[in-house]
Design a protein that fits this description.
alpha+beta; Ubiquitin-like (UB roll); DNA polymerase, domain 1; 2 domains; five-stranded mixed beta sheet; 7 helices; 5 strands; elongated; metal-binding
């Protein structure tokens, strides 16, 4: 005659659960216990800064940046070059445009630590002493600004744009994309400067200023 296996009773299950609870409560290593939200909030944050060497407006600059810092914020808040403006901070208005290795970029969309060894030119570095850059002089002569907030980015972008046209880079409106040199009509200038917004709507004067520089180059 075979023995019937006894099933665990409700009392057995309760005793087992209580034993497991005691084991977990007394045997859990302290290292695995998660810190309380209050303790986590009070814990000091460790800031990491990476050394970077740049050439800014012709002068070497050695600095250390938080790897999350944009080039725009590094220029404005750490290097005191406040000519480049923060407009949208999303790369849509062009107020932060600077020249990096001769090419125009939105400084709000790139990290400072990405530019080790690069040559950066901001609006502060365009003039030669008391002699304005031709584009700066043209903007003044043509009254290409009103409030002036977008002007540093407009001027840097215009200088970069002229270099692109001289190199034969076509735009969306270029009729002959194989041309060695682009003819800068008003339509070409407007298209190539479309990434720079002027909320005062001084666009006709900006186009005229850029055309003056292009024709005398």
């Amino acid at each position: 005659m075979t023995e019937r296996k006894s099933r665990p009773t409700r009392r057995d299950i309760m005793h087992g659960g209580a034993a497991a609870t005691v084991l977990l409560a007394t045997g859990m290593p302290e290292a695995t216990a998660a810190p309380s939200p209050a303790a986590a909030a009070e814990a000091p944050l460790r800031t990491v800064r990476l050394p970077v060497t740049l050439t800014i407006n012709g002068s070497p600059v050695a600095a250390a940046f938080d790897p999350r810092t944009t080039l725009l914020d590094a220029l404005r808040h750490q290097l005191d070059l406040t000519g480049s403006k923060k407009g949208c901070d999303h790369g849509q208005c062009g107020a932060c445009t600077v020249l990096v290795n001769g090419r125009r970029i939105n400084a709000c969309l790139t990290l400072a630590v990405m530019h080790e060894g690069d040559e950066i030119r901001t609006i502060e570095g365009l003039a030669q002493g008391d002699t304005l850059h031709p584009m700066q002089a043209a903007f003044i002569a043509r009254d290409g600004f009103q409030c002036g907030y977008c002007t540093p980015g407009q001027i840097c972008s215009a200088i970069g744009m002229l270099r692109e046209a001289e190199a034969g880079w076509p735009s969306h409106v270029t009729s002959d994309v194989a041309a060695a040199r682009i003819t800068l009509s008003d339509a070409e200038i407007r298209e190539r400067m479309s990434g720079n917004i002027c909320r005062c709507a001084a666009y006709p004067n900006i186009v005229a200023a850029i055309r003056d520089v292009a024709e005398t180059a």
